[in-house]
Design a protein that fits this description.
The chain has one domain. It is 9% helix and 25% strand. It has three helices and eleven strands; from the N terminus they run αβββαββββββββα. A nine-stranded mixed beta sheet has the order 1-11-10-9-8-7-6-5-4, with no helix packed on it. Strands 2-3 form a two-stranded parallel ribbon. Strand 4 and strand 5 form a beta hairpin. The chain is globular, with a radius of gyration of 18 Å.
């Protein structure tokens, strides 16, 4: 990950978009399996095995004395797009649906098509809104998962958004019955063997599920699964259960790459945005 030699506060939103276009190229393993461990995808030899804590839990962060973050790929998608669309087959799961096989409600497909036709210029993320669900996991600049067993919680922190974080309760609690809809929803988690499973509800309708414009409604229920297949690779798979936008639940995902040696840094999206006209084709509220 490269840091820029100018203050982050004056990086324009259009520059952020251009950077987000550049996919990280990695090599998919045999038969469409997990990417081969290559140490940042640069041919540095086999990846280390999946790390574990002393109690046997998978360690989703760095080893003691080291540092690093998970880097989502901006081109990763939940469904395979047609040629010329946003797509990166080196990142998405080989089990992903084709776009035409997604069980769209007609209005949801129409919204998706409109967003594509408008080159996603109305994306809430580039207007400094938080990104819920899958969108957080293909946003550039890094994401960190902090496991705090004493609190029975996980914290998920993202750089490339307006001070984005999520709390995942690991104490066995149920979702509250009356939730105020939010960008990140309410999340509870548990382990299924080597896989972290996060169940989330209570979302608002102010974000896109993915960068290319997949819509959702307030009925959204997400089941996210995180499997660290080796030290450098995380398999991210999410089931979207939203009968407001789809006729049945469906599943997709991609691989995340470990960026060794990187740390969180302050990224201010809201302040000093000087490129509103270029971003949106004119000033907007």
């Amino acid at each position: 990950m490269r840091r820029f030699g100018i203050p982050l506060l004056v990086i324009t939103a259009s520059a952020v978009l251009l950077l987000a276009q550049a996919p990280v190229q990695i090599e998919i393993g045999p038969n469409g399996g997990a990417p081969k461990g290559k140490g940042k995808g640069k041919g540095k030899g086999p990846a280390q095995p999946t790390p574990h804590h002393a109690d046997g839990r998978v360690n989703l962060g760095p080893l003691a004395g080291q540092k690093g973050m998970w880097e989502g790929n901006a081109g990763a998608t939940l469904a395979t797009n047609p040629p010329g669309g946003l797509d990166n087959p080196t990142m998405y799961l080989p089990t992903n649906l084709k776009l035409e096989d997604v069980p769209w409600q007609p209005w949801a497909k129409a919204v998706y098509d409109y967003r594509q036709a408008e080159t996603t210029k109305d994306d809430p993320h580039v207007r400094c809104k938080p990104s819920g669900g899958p969108r957080m996991w293909h946003t550039p600049y890094g994401t960190e998962i902090i496991d705090v067993p004493a609190e029975k919680r996980l914290y998920i922190l993202g750089v490339g958004g307006p001070h984005t974080w999520r709390t995942v309760y690991m104490d066995g609690r149920a979702h509250p019955k009356d939730l105020d809809p939010s960008f990140s929803g309410h999340s509870v988690g548990h382990w299924e063997g080597e896989t972290l499973v996060i169940d989330s509800v209570g979302f608002n309708e102010k974000f896109w599920l993915t960068r290319e414009g997949i819509p959702s409604t307030a009925s959204l229920h997400l089941i996210e699964k995180f499997t660290r297949t080796d030290y450098d690779t995380m398999k991210y798979e999410v089931t979207i259960d939203d009968l407001g936008a789809y006729t049945r639940p469906w599943t997709g995902g991609w691989y995340l790459r470990w960026q060794a040696g990187e740390e969180m840094y302050e990224y201010i999206c809201q302040e000093n945005n000087r490129d509103v006209e270029h971003m949106f084709g004119g000033a907007r509220n």
